[in-house]
Amino acid sequence: MIKKFNFFKPLICFLLGASSTFCLEPYVIYPLILCFSMGVFIVLQSENRIQTFINGWCFGFGWFFAGLYWIGAAFLLKSTVFYFLMPLAIIFLPAILSIVWAASFILTNEITKINGVRYIWFIIMFSSFEFFRGYYLEFPWLMPGAFFASNKYLLQSFSFVGSYSMNIVFAIIIVMPIIFFCSQKIKINFSIFLLLPLIGLFFSGYKRFENIKINQNKNFIVTLVQPNINQKDKWKKSLISTHYKKLQDLSNQKNELGPYDLRLIVWPETAFVGVYPRDKEQLINFKKNFINTNLNDYLFTGIINLNKKKYFNSGILIDSENKVKNIYNKNYLVPFGEYLPLRKMLPNFSFLSNKIDFKSGSKNEMFSLTNNLNFLPLICYEIIFHKYIAQELNDKISLIINITNDAWFGNTIGPYQHLQFAKIRSVEFGIPVVRVANTGVSGFFDPYGNLISKIKLNQTGVVSNNIMSRLESTLFKSWGNKIFILMLIYVCLLFTYTYTITRSKN
Q1: Which of 53-57, 233-237, 309-313, 361-365 has the lowest mean pLDDT?
Q2: Where would I find the beta strands (DSSP E) of 227-296?
Q3: CA-to-CA distance for 133 and 137, rounded, in angstroms?
Q4: What are the Cα distances from residue 82, in Å, to 72, 231, 336, 346, 362?
Q5: Where does residue 453 rank: exposed (0-12), middle (13-18), buried (19+ CB within 10 A)?
Q6: What pTM was estimated for this model as a whole?
Q7: Which domains does the chain have, with CATH numbers?
């Protein structure tokens, strides 16, 4: 019977990992966080290194497989060409990411086998490896700490400690039920030194949300345009004029916010499918057709930029006088989608990507509408890299504008996960975030992560809102990931203390 149970442990771990993802957005079934606790318990009870690795890997594979399956939807758009790649997309990536989790479990069991104490060490190992995955491997997608972003009060904790530190908080929460079954001494230490600070953190978040103070500048308006163009139709030459007409009609809709001094109209990523500067006049003519030159109206849209024989996925700002004011070239490119890694070394695999690779931009600069009104442009998944935003964000920037095209992923959970990053960034940095997507979800986030107005997924629409003021600062903006290191050191000290007194008793 025991051997039979051990045989099924990897399957159990996989199912627990997969079930755990349902505690995140868009499902938000909070009790399923207990599945994560059960999975951790089973993995760390493994008899040897091999079993620990297998069980830990299966647990991680369940988590990433269930949470990232939507990536495969992009390959269905050209199913006759890429159908065989979809299994690789939804299996290979989770398989690689799961190794990171398996390594954290192995190192946990290598340090100590003392029941109870090992789970404090797990907090350290798991959080460190998640930091490694997000910061150095640059794939922070589906981080467990996002669990707290679904509640408006818990969300405010990100303004104090940041997203990587919230992985530490998550690890503490999921080991809590396990540790409370251990010795009374460990239970007391855990409660005093870990749970009480967390209560203080969450209470501070509650008070922050209850004391919301946001000023709106009614003289400045941002208009979001979501055309909802099917990805299969987006680049068809016969439909391009139809798409532009749709963008124009939406942009021409009457503004219900009243008179204004300046309005910024925002179109999604690559909304203009021409190439700049070759098709510059065409873009300018389109703008003339829907923007009243008697008013101070600007247009920010995604575009393909050709510069020195290099193609860039870019954002372009055109002012009320129909002059190009700024161009931003995307820095973080999507592998296989925007470029083929090692193209020269893998010529036989060139069919996996476009014939021509996009190039990465060298830097990001703020876009200026007025002397006192500036924004930071981000394209697509650049919103997920908070280290990049922290580098570029300065006190002169009034808001972040993220243009994207999530039509590749259809009606899956992918666009909702992408949306959540915008919400977290707004809270971390205390700055409004405007998100404009081709098929949704588009909307305005205030500095407290409230979605003020939105256009739902797979809907055509336009919505305007006054520009909100940013907060002076947040604790995380001031300290950055130093907070993560300090929290990690604190847990290390608790582990050392608990480990010492436990060994002395034995």
Answers
A1: 361-365
A2: 262-266, 275-276
A3: 5
A4: 10, 15, 12, 17, 31
A5: exposed
A6: 0.91
A7: 2-211+484-505 (no CATH), 217-332+353-468 (3.60.110.10)
Q: Which residue has the higher pLDDT, 492 or 341?
A: 492
| Cβ-proximal residues to 302 (8 Å cutoff; 6+ apart), any chain | 267, 268, 269, 270, 271, 272, 313, 314, 315, 316, 379, 403, 405
Angle made by CA atoms 229, 231, 237, in degrees to the nearest 5: 80
Residue owning tokens 């055309």:
227
Return the bridge partners of 465, or none.
222
Nearest CA to 134 out of 334, 385, 429 is that of 385
* Residue in 427, 431, 446 with CA at minimum distance from that of residue 397: 431
Q: Which pair of tokens denotes residue 342?
A: 């090692």
Instruction: Render pLDDT for 306-330 as a digit per residue (tens, 0 to 9).
Output: 988 888 999 999 988 888 899 999 9
Phi-psi category of residue 412: left, alpha or beta, with phi > 0 → left and psi -120 to 50 → alpha: beta
| Residue 141 and residue 386 in contact, taking contact as beta carbons nearer than 8 Å | no
- State the residue for tokens 């025991």: 2
CA–CA separation, 148 and 135 (whole Å)? 20
